[in-house]
Each structure stands twice: as C-alpha cells, then as structure tokens.
Design goal:
The protein has about 170 residues and is mostly helical. Helices cover about 85% and strands about 0% of the residues. It has one domain.
Length: about 170
C-alpha cells in the first residue's frame, strides 16, 4: 500500500469516527426526543432498546475503524504479517458479528405491533445477514493472513539456513 493510499484511508477513518461521535452526541438525543413525540400509532415502540441498539451499533463501527487504523499502521511498518495482527482481525470479526446480532435484535424489537411495516423488519433482517456475511469474509481473510504469516516464517527460516551454508 502506498503512502497516499494509507493517508487517504486514515483521512476517511478520521471523518467516519468524527461523524460517529456526532451521531452519538447530537443525533441520538434528537432521535430520542423525536421518538417521544411520535403519533399514537408508534407510541408502542420501545424507545430505550432502539436507542441502545443504535448506540451499540455505532460503537461496533468505531471498533472496526480503530482496528483498521491499527492494521494500516502495521502495513506501514511492515509488521502486518505477524501474529500480533490476528488480534485486530479477531476484534473486527467479533464487531461485525455483534453488529449483525444487534440488527436482528432491532428487527425483533420492531416486529410486534403495527408501528413498523413488516417489510422494514425484513430489510433489517437482510441487513443483519449482509453484515454477518462481512464477518465471514473477514474470517476468510484471517485465514489468508495466517497462511501468509506461516509462509513468512518459513521464508525467514530458509533464509537463516541459507545464510549458515554461505
């Protein structure tokens, strides 16, 4: 990865992190107020679980962004093919899995009653499935990282043996 790509990715991560903090600090309280003012049909919606799921979902995204930042730093330093990179990849996988579970929980919270159309609940379930799919892709990439780390260790051992012969 080139320097420009690394800096561009970091700039995107900073903007996304700042945006997520803005959502948590400004928009979630506004949403809480709006939920309180909804008409009678939607008054049955449980406000606290919806807001809690939203905040936890944003937290999952922030965790992923932080881990990606750390992995980009490892790439820049040339240490991404080391066992220490597995920790960040495992955390990313767990965060995506948690986000999928949060989406399915949101669907379950919204499903009862007439306040939310069944199609919306179905879309939320589909989004949860897509997020779980991303977690599985990251898991596959973790396997590729493990193979690369093993090959790197093997190459280092062979280089050491070659140096002894020479």
């Amino acid at each position: 990865m080139g320097k420009l790509t690394g800096w561009a990715l970091r700039a995107v991560i900073v903007v996304l992190l700042l945006g997520s903090v803005f959502v948590q600090v400004v928009l979630v309280p506004l949403l809480a107020r709006d939920l309180d003012e909804l008409n009678k049909d939607a008054a049955d919606l449980p406000h606290v679980p919806i807001l809690l799921i939203l905040v936890l979902g944003i937290l999952c995204a922030e965790v992923v962004l932080t881990c990606v930042w750390q992995l980009v730093t490892k790439v820049r330093h040339g240490t991404v093919f080391s066992p220490s990179a597995f920790r960040q990849v495992d955390i990313v996988t767990a965060a995506f899995t948690a986000a999928a579970l949060l989406l399915w929980t949101l669907g379950a919270v919204l499903a009862p009653g007439e306040a939310v159309a069944p199609g919306v609940v179905l879309l939320i379930g589909g989004a949860g499935l897509a997020v779980l799919g991303v977690a599985l892709v990251v898991l596959v990439l973790r396997t590729l990282l493990a193979q690369a780390v093993a090959r790197d260790a093997e190459a280092a051992q062979m280089q050491a043996e070659l140096n002894e012969v020479i």
